[in-house]
Amino acid sequence: VPVLLEETVARLVTEPGGWYVDGTAGAGGHASAVLAAAGLDARLLALDRDGDALELARAALAPFGGRAIVERANFSEMSEVAARHGIRNIRGILLDLGVSSMQLDRSERGFSFMRDSPLDMRMDDRQELTAAVLLKQLSPEELADVLWRYGEESMSRRIAKAIAGALARGEPVETTAQLAELVSQAKGGRRGRTHPATQTFQALRIAVNGELAALEAVLPAALDLLEPGGRLAVISFHSLED
Predict the structure, then answer these.
(1) Which is more confident, 99 or 100?
(2) Residue 81 — very low, low, confident or very high, per pLDDT cuts 50/70/90?
(3) Using CA atoms, how far apart are residues 78 and 13, in angstroms rounded to an integer?
């Protein structure tokens, strides 16, 4: 069940018919509910950059036939995709930001430190940049800046120094467990309600996927696509997205 399902549908669908866009289709839960609520004259463009998620969305939206267009794309490319399909005067646009539970649950994707896996974190596996590659590319100062800006990590310099030191000694930092342990040691092994590496993992995920840059690009694009009185619904999860 997607987050805020009833609330999202109630705010997006105010009258029958029209075009809608789900920029983060995921497993198709929001998109299916919007189409069902908007009636037989409604159509929807579903986008997602995650190929695995999009296959689930295709299956969920298959009963709607030609009323649903499903395409693999970052939501920042929404204007170009809509133009290619001749879609304009959109009645409602939805964005559900951040990582999905499906991505977290699949350990091989490298988003979570709950199970050891390659340090990947790509939402779109067509891109070359992974979290492990990013750690090797950034200087300690650049890494500390990423951890501070995207993870709001108060011990960013100490963590960046620890990671840089491990890499300089030839120690591998290529799995989620290796990184989580490094961060935990750098923070003195302190454990509260959240794991010491939580903010570091968030920061690297945002950096690898360019999440905030994509959000900054899509907001004005979405407003241009909406018809007068159209609605943009954005589900956000932390202060940086807000």
Answers:
(1) 99
(2) very high
(3) 20
Q: Which residue has the tokens 């999440």?
A: 211
- Cβ distance 89 to 228 under 8 Å? no
Q: Both tokens of residue 106? A: 């699949």
Which pTM was predicted? 0.90
Q: Which of 143, 145, 149, 23 is nearest to 92 (CA)?
A: 23
Instruction: Classify burial at 71, counting beta carbons within 10 Å of its beta carbon; exposed 0-12, middle 13-18, buried 19 or more.
Output: middle
Using CB atoms within 10 A of its CB, is residue 106 exposed (0-12), middle (13-18) or buried (19+)?
middle
HSE-up of residue 92 (Cα within 13 Å, Cβ side): 26
Question: Highest mean pLDDT range out of 42-46, 97-101, 106-110?
Answer: 42-46
